[in-house]
Design goal:
Elements lengths: L17 H13 L12 H8 L3 H13 L3 E4 L3 E4 L4 E6 L4 H6 L6 E10 L3 H7 L7 E10 L2 E11 L6 H8 L2 H7 L6 E11 L2 H7 L6 E10 L5 E10 L3 E6 L1
Parallel strand pairs: 3-10
Antiparallel strand pairs: 1-2, 4-5, 5-6, 6-9, 7-8, 8-9
Helix pairs in contact: 1-3, 2-3, 6-7
């Protein structure tokens, strides 16, 4: 989705402080002049508009980000924040389903899907022997063309040997498990923690390095309470809100 930068007819005034610029943009957001997802002017353009140094503009931008009014997309600029992307951690449903129920339609980009050897933690969790493999599913999820989630899931190969062929068609782990293999996954446990983005996470999520993240580790089980999926989800914390209802 392309965003059009928003301007207004304010006269240039060399007495503007960073709080003046902050308040003008904030008021425009609150009054609906700048709609959610709208790109605001770049730092250089705001500097010319208000006849101030970029340092002054940057302080206003940083304050707007800190107050949750705008967010950054690296190499693209600053955008008026959407309403928070609400992610619900529930026993019976996936992140995607929880978003669809709220009329939010996320998109999925498959980064990689392959078989891997389990580490000691996965061997114990899935009760695997030395020669048994796991499916690893690595994806990036978008909402309104903004990446918000990096997902990495592990599923025992022996339980779903042709998983990759079905997943490439529907791009939904839980849908494949239910409709193809008759497995009804339920969330057994979830652990949430904060983190800081490294180079790869920053590049994938279009954020600056050392940005705050939310990481959720899940263990899902089948109808017999046997582990079927281990997943790690890494969220942008500036536009995502995690809700728990188990």
């Amino acid at each position: 989705m392309k965003h059009k930068a928003v301007n207004s007819n304010d006269d240039i005034d060399n007495e503007y402080t960073y709080m003046d610029i902050y308040n003008k943009i904030k008021r425009g957001i609150e009054e609906g002049m700048y709609l959610p997802g709208t790109k605001i002017l770049a730092e250089s353009e705001l500097s010319l508009k208000y006849n101030v140094k970029r340092f002054t503009v940057r302080k206003a931008i940083q304050r707007l980000i800190a107050d949750g009014l705008i967010f950054a997309i690296r190499n693209r600029g600053y955008y008026v924040k959407f309403y928070d992307i609400d992610i619900w951690i529930k026993k019976e449903c996936s992140y995607t389903l929880s978003m669809l129920k709220r009329k939010m339609n996320p998109k999925v980009k498959i980064l990689e899907i392959k078989t891997v050897s389990p580490d000691s933690e996965h061997k114990k969790l899935f009760d695997l022997k030395n020669n048994e493999m796991l499916w690893e599913i690595y994806v990036l999820r978008y909402y309104r063309n903004v990446p918000f989630l990096i997902g990495r899931s592990y599923i025992p190969y022996k339980r779903v040997p042709s998983f990759n062929m079905h997943y490439l068609k529907v791009k939904s782990i839980h849908r494949v498990l239910r409709e193809v293999y008759g497995i009804k996954p339920e969330r057994k446990s979830s652990v949430c923690r904060t983190s800081i983005s490294g180079k790869r996470e920053s590049r994938l999520l279009s954020i600056f390095e050392n940005s705050p993240l939310l990481k959720v580790t899940n263990i899902n089980v089948d109808q017999e309470d046997i582990p079927i999926e281990y997943s790690i989800s890494t969220f942008r914390s500036d536009i995502v809100r995690i809700n728990v209802n188990l």
